[in-house]
Amino acid sequence: MKNLDILLIDDDELSNIYTVIKIKEFTQVPEVSICYNGEQALEYIKSKMSSGAALPDYIFLDIHMPIMNGLEFLEEYQYVEKKSKIIMLSTSILEEERAIALKYDFVVDFINKPLKVELMKEIFSRSTVQK
């Protein structure tokens, strides 16, 4: 697997530690960038774009966060010219939230925490041939 650039957007420190371990275990990426809310993530993305840097290949996005939640982030992110593939990673079991997230064509999957390596293999293989 090529060296991926991955961004994790989640306000839960403990969950982030676990998720980063699992991402690194599967992808062998040296580092995962972390933002703690949607607003911080949009600033991170704008900064990368203004410097000419590539956007992350994948974004793992939680829904329930302070300041700007995941669904609000998606609403703003749709206006970004180049898109990363977004994987929703949440404890939410609400079908309404799932449906809202999946209406965006750049959202390639919606999975429940905790992230499992077996699921990652399936997600990455599916998302490289779709969307």
Describe the structure.
- The protein is of the alpha/beta class.
- It has a single domain (6-127), classed as 3-Layer(aba) Sandwich (Rossmann fold), CATH 3.40.50.2300.
- Helix content is 42%, strand content 18%.
- The chain contains 5 helices and 5 strands, in the order βαβαβαβαβα.
- It has helices spanning 13-27, 38-50, 70-77, 95-102, 117-127; strands at 6-9, 33-35, 58-61, 85-90, 107-112.
- It has a 5-stranded parallel beta sheet with strand order 2-1-3-4-5, with helices on both faces.
- Helix 3 (70-77) links the parallel strand 3 and strand 4 (85-90).
- Helix 2 (38-50) runs parallel beside helix 3.
- The longest helix is centred in the N-terminal third of the chain and has 15 residues, at 13-27.
- The average pLDDT value, as a whole number, equals 89
Structural class: alpha/beta
Number of domains: 1
The shape, in one word, is globular
